[in-house]
Every structure is written in C-alpha cells, then in structure tokens.
Design a protein that fits this description.
The protein is mostly beta strands. Helices cover about 0% and strands about 35% of the residues. The radius of gyration is 14 Å and the shape is globular. The protein starts with 6 loop residues before the first strand and ends in a 5-residue tail after the last strand.
Length: about 130
C-alpha cells in the first residue's frame, strides 16, 4: 500500500499466537520518495492515553467486517503499545521493519481489514493459531 509522500507499507506476515488470543502483523515501511519523510507521528493515531504513541504504530487497527468489530493495538501494563515504537524520519530509499499486535478475532474469522493512518485499507488473511 502506498500512503502519503511515497511511503510504501508492505505487510510481510500475519500470525495468530498459539494461544489464539492475539494476532501480530509484521510489515516494512519504505520511503520510495526522493526526500526525507518526517510524518511518522501520523501513524500513532489520536488516542492520547497511549504512552509514546507519537512515533509508533499505535494508530493501527484491524476490522472484522463479518462481525462489525474493530480491534486496536494491544497495550502493556505501562500503557505503551505492543507495536513498533521510537520510529524516526525515513531517508529517501530507507526501509524499516515494523509490527503491531492486536487481540485476535474469533477463530472462525479468516480475513480482516488492516488500517494505518494515511494508508488505504488492506484486506489480509488470518490463518488458524499455530
């Protein structure tokens, strides 16, 4: 998916935890533009209660359209997201790995929509717990 300023998000993996209680989405962010990208803070979302959200993927969500449910990034006991944090500006051509962990939809759900601010939605497959 291509977001603003030629930033490309490529989902590289989607995995349900063996417990079946969480889903981890792995991806890369690449600056395919010719200038540095300083808009990382948009990916943190608008929930000010998430500690350190401004330079993270805390704004990512999964949507189970079959059950009309939205899942937000999990948080640790200190209020931080279980996602990539301390993201910084991306130089032209630079690629960084990122991840976000969510509560898992019911085991019967086989696909969800992944959303990250400034990017279009992407439908991604969900397998069974491993």
């Amino acid at each position: 998916m291509t977001g603003r300023d030629s930033i490309v998000l490529t989902i590289t993996g989607v995995e349900r935890a063996a417990s079946g209680k969480s889903v981890t989405v792995s991806a890369t962010l690449k600056n395919s533009g010719t200038k540095g990208f300083f808009g990382i803070s948009a990916y943190g979302g608008t929930d000010a209660s998430i500690k350190g959200r401004m330079h993270s993927l805390a704004g990512a969500t999964l949507t189970d359209t079959a059950h009309n449910m939205r899942y937000y990034v999990l948080r640790d006991t200190a209020g931080g997201c279980l996602c990539s944090t301390a993201l910084r500006a991306l130089k032209s051509g630079e690629t960084v790995p990122v991840f976000a962990q969510f509560p898992a939809p019911p085991a019967s759900v086989r696909s969800v929509d992944f959303q990250l601010p400034t990017f279009p939605n992407a439908t991604i497959p969900l397998g069974a717990a491993r």
